[in-house]
Write a structure and sequence with these properties.
Shape: globular
Order of helices and strands: HHEHEHEHHEEHH
Low-confidence stretches: none
Strand content: 5-15%
Number of helices: 8
Distance between the termini: 39 Å
Mean pLDDT: 95
Structural class: alpha/beta
Helix content: 40-55%
Radius of gyration: 19 Å
Strand order of the largest sheet: 1-3-2
Oligomer: single chain
């Protein structure tokens, strides 16, 4: 979700106003995905690299995260949405960690959209933590026993299918350390639309683009065409 700061700058507003407007976009997109029967939506809210931003901005982002956890969880639960927070949580305040655990517990049995919020997340961190967890659980095995299936069992979002589509807003054309293991066969969609302006119509354009593509997963076009 890129472009909050630039959205605000274009309007001569503080960057934080852009983040607030970005939260409104999150609400729109989550609601639309739930209505369309999409199984899972993962939003990259805060990367491991984002701690490098100005201290004031990081503090306000943490405040916005906490406010969303407190205010929106009841609505998510009412709409049968299951919330999962993905990333290293120990860097967050005890209050944020408490509300993360409470939000996940409250929505754990919901069967609709699974909403994953990647916070203090990095794809490289994810792979490293998966290997460490595998090693801790299998101390008698050697590194030669490590394979893709083993990583898949410990990587974040292992309870869900691999992502079908990555949407990046704001004109950037890179994945920025996001789900780099999970997105081996993900389709990419880049748009110049800044995240606060990303709405239901913009999402449908991305889905239409995805729907027009032929996904071969290493096979030929003739192999995957229906008979």
């Amino acid at each position: 979700m890129d472009g909050n700061g630039r959205w605000a700058k274009k309007r001569l507003l503080p960057r934080f106003i852009g983040h607030q407007k970005g939260l409104n976009a999150v609400k729109r997109i989550v609601a639309h995905c739930a209505e369309q029967g999409i199984e899972a939506l993962t939003l990259f809210a805060f990367s491991t690299e984002n701690w490098r931003r100005p201290e004031e901005e990081v503090t306000k982002l943490m405040g916005l995260f906490l406010k969303a956890l407190k205010k929106e969880i009841h609505k998510l639960d009412e709409n049968n949405v299951r919330l999962q927070i993905v990333g290293e949580r120990s860097a967050f305040s005890e209050e944020i960690q408490h509300y993360i655990e409470e939000a996940e517990r409250k929505t754990a049995s919901n069967s609709g959209l699974t909403l994953n919020i990647a916070a203090n997340y990095g794809g490289r961190w994810d792979i490293i933590q998966a290997v460490k967890q595998w090693q801790a659980d299998n101390p008698r095995l050697s590194i030669s026993d490590l394979n893709e299936d083993a990583i898949n069992a410990y990587i974040s979002l292992s309870n869900l299918p691999e992502p079908d589509l990555l949407i990046r807003t704001g004109g950037e054309q890179r994945i920025s350390n996001f789900l780099i293991w999970q997105m081996a066969y993900t389709e990419f969609y880049f748009t110049d639309t800044l995240w606060p302006d990303f709405d239901e119509k913009a999402l449908e354009r991305a889905l239409d683009s995805f729907g027009s593509r032929e996904r071969r997963f290493g096979q030929t076009g003739d192999q995957v065409k229906p008979c």
